[in-house]
Amino acid sequence: MVDFIPVHTAHIITMCPGGRPVAVMENLEEEKNIATVVSRFLEKRMLEKQDFITLIDNRDSPVVSASAGSTVRSLLKVRSVSETLSVFGNRIYVRGLIEFTNYCRNNCLYCGIRAGNTEAQRYRITEEQILNCCGEGYRLGFRTFVLQGGEDPFYTDEMIAGIVRSIKKTYSDCAVTLSVGEHEYETYRLWREAGADRYLLRQETADNGHYSRLHPSSMSPVHRKQCLENLKALGYQTGAGFMVGSPFQTTANIADDLLYLSGLGPEMIGIGPFIHHDKTPFRNEKDGSAELTLFLLSVLRIMFPRVLLPATTALGTIQNDGREQGVLYGANVIMPNLSPVGVRGKYLLYNNKICTGEEAAECSSCLQRRMNAIGYKIVVDRGDYMKEQN
Asked: What's the pTM value of the predicted model, to 2 decimals?
């Protein structure tokens, strides 16, 4: 076990009645507790709920260690980079994101494409357009295509299965990831049998009470978690995750999310800062922060050394170098936009979403330069989850 001693305050000298000096260190027991928590986490990769709360709430606390001036954040950052390099080297996997519909039957309170947003410019793209996007992406070196959309009843289960089959038939060396919300077991099975390799479905929050404050009563946190269990059971490489800084979120909620993910064991984890959208009930809520998101990326990398961990578009939106910083905190996936240019500005889950320029898949050389500048390289690879060899 590594021994760390946090330093928050200097000694304060007071005088007791009678003139005897007494050395007082503020919060001495708390500081010792932080040191113990950091040490335990670095050794065990896991904590109990209260210890996670302590770790998160004291993430910028200075600590005395082998390196002068270290903080909890900096220690975890160094460790997370070491974990990433030991498993993946300096390889960054890219996924071509195809946002094929922004219609959605749901009314999540935070989402810009919620059914209740009557001002959203709705669109759908055809199977032919999706395949054209894949063709362009393949030419650019993408070997994973992510089909993402709202829960749009227009696309029947069989239509989605047909699109998956077409992609797999044309690009047999590529992975197909679906991200189209909550469905029943038989639907997920149909898509898996059609050739879908992965599925992304963030739990958003593991706390049922918090979930109910972010979603309409028609949506169930129990059902969402059951969907994730079904995806795992069907053999999908499964992605879960949560918003950072969502309305009403507490540190205890984040700790619950970390514990939930530990139990689920996903192959992919996506987290990003909450960013408000002007046409939602949360239009006046405070946005989440890049700094907490980055810290939690390092926590997740230490907990899950082999997980596929994206530096999300939301992180790149809220901070100009958010994706680079995400990689430097343990992320190893980025997801440039392959959608038709004419619709990219319409898939707006939140305000000011980056979707053109260097975010675009067409500027893959720009992304390569940005990754090279921080010591990493984008590779032509499916980037599948790699199980630990016994």
From this structure: 0.92
Residue ranges making up the domain that contains 155:
90-379
- Which DSSP string corresponds to 2-32? ---EE--S--EEEE-TTS-EEEE-TTHHHHH
Would 247 be classed as within a structural domain? yes
Between the CA atoms of 317, 320, 321 and 323, what dihedral angle is there, to the nearest 10 degrees? 10
Boundary (domain end) residue, out of 79, 100, 119: 79
Q: How far is CA 231 from CA 62, 172, 194, 203, 237, in A?
A: 42, 22, 14, 13, 8
Q: What is the pLDDT of residue 361?
A: 58
**Do 19 and 138 lie in a common domain?**
no
Assign 109 to helix, strand or coil. coil
pLDDT for 12 beyond 50? no
DSSP label of 362? G
Q: How many domains does the chain have?
A: 2
Cβ–Cβ < 8 Å for 300, 330 = yes
- Which residue in 207, 304, 302 sits closest to 246, CA to CA? 207
Structure tokens belonging to residue 107: 């009314």
Tell me which of 12-26, 196-210, 374-388 is least confident: 12-26
In this structure, the number of other CB atoms found within 10 A of the CB of residue 105 comes to 12
